[in-house]
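Next up, sample data.

:::
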Amino acid sequence: MPLKCLRGEDEVFAFDFENESAWKALREANATERNLRMPCCGAAVVLRTSSLGTRHFAHARRGPCTTAPETSEHLLAKRKVIEGIRRTEWTAKTEQEGTTPEGERWRADVLATRGKGRVAIEVQWSRQEGDETFRRQSRYDDAGVRGLWLFRQHDFPVSEMIPAFRLVFDDKSNSFSVLLPSPTYNPRLVKAKDRDEPRYWSQRVGLEDFAEGVVSGRLRFLPVLNRTLPLDVFVTPATCRRCGAETKLVTRLVFAVSRTMPGHPDIPASLQSLGELIDGPERVESWLPPSLLKRQGIGALRVRQSGLDVENRKSYLSNGCVKCDAMQARWFEDRLEAEEEFALSVDVVFDALLAFHLPHIDHIVSRWWFDERK
C-alpha cells in the first residue's frame, strides 16, 4: 500500500491530491486509461483510502508480488512526515530508491532533498533489531544520505551515528508524537511494561513539527557544546569554626541548560568534580570571583590544604570564611542536614573539557535535543 505509483516514467504521489474531488478524478482517469502501475512489480493500480483516512495505491490484483503491505499507521506516519517537510524549502518524496557506490540498493520511506543535501526518514513500525538498524544506517552513510529512524518499539540504539527516536500513535486523535530519550533511558534496561514512564523521555514533539525541524537544523546532538549557559550557585548557611562569623558555603552548582534550551536536562556539578579538572580551580575563580561571592555573604572558592599532618595534607577546591578566609570543611562532610538556598547565577561557556571530563554526565550531554522554538 504505497503512497507512490508510476505513470510511465513519472512518479505520482497520493498526497499531492489534496481533496477528494482531485482523488476521484484520478481514480476515474485510471479506470479509463489504466496507465497507473505499482513501482514494486508493475502491476495495475487501484486507488484506496486507509482506515485512518490516508489516500494510497494498491495492487489491483496481488499476483506474485512479494512486497509486504503497509499498515494504516505506517502510511499515515509517512504522510505526516511529508507534510512537515513541505513546510520548508526542502522537497520530500516517499518510497525513493538509490544505490551505494558499491551497488547496494536502498529504499527510503521518505527522502528529503535540497540541493546536494539528502535526508532519509525511516518509519519503522515493525520491530527491527539493532544490528539491522546499524547495517541499514551504514548503507545510507555509504550513499551520502543522512538517515533518521522513527521506531514504534521502545528499545533502540541512541548515538550520534544513528539518530533514533520513538514514535507513538494516539488513536483517539489520529496523531503521532516523537519521543526523545532522556538521560535515564537505557535500551537494555527499559522493560516493556515501563516503556511509557515519563522519566525515560525528555521531549514529546508532534510528528509534523519534528519532521519540519529535522531539515531546518533544529535537531542537534550534544547541543550544549560551546554554548553559553547559566551556572546556578546554591549555598547553605554556616558558622566559621575559627572566627565565629556567619558565612555561606557553596554546596551545589547546576548548569541550568533548560532555561536556554527547553526540554534539555540540567547538568549538576560540584566543587569536587570541578576542582579535579586540569584548570578547574582557575575556571571557578574566573566564574565566581571573591568580590562577587563576598557581596552574597559567601567566602572565596580556592584551593586550600587540609589536615594538621604536613606529610598527609591534601589540597582541594574549598569554601573559605567570608570574614577570615579560613578553610571550611567540605559541605558533604558536615552540612548534609543544612537548608540549601539559591544564591546567584552567572553565564559560562560549556566547552569540550566540561562536556567530556565531568564525571557521570556522558549520559546527559551525549543526547539528541530538539529545539521546539521556531
User: Anything to note?
Assistant: The first strand starts at residue 4 and ends at 7. Residues 95 and 109 are 5 Å apart (CA to CA). The chain has three domains: 1-69, 71-217, 227-356.
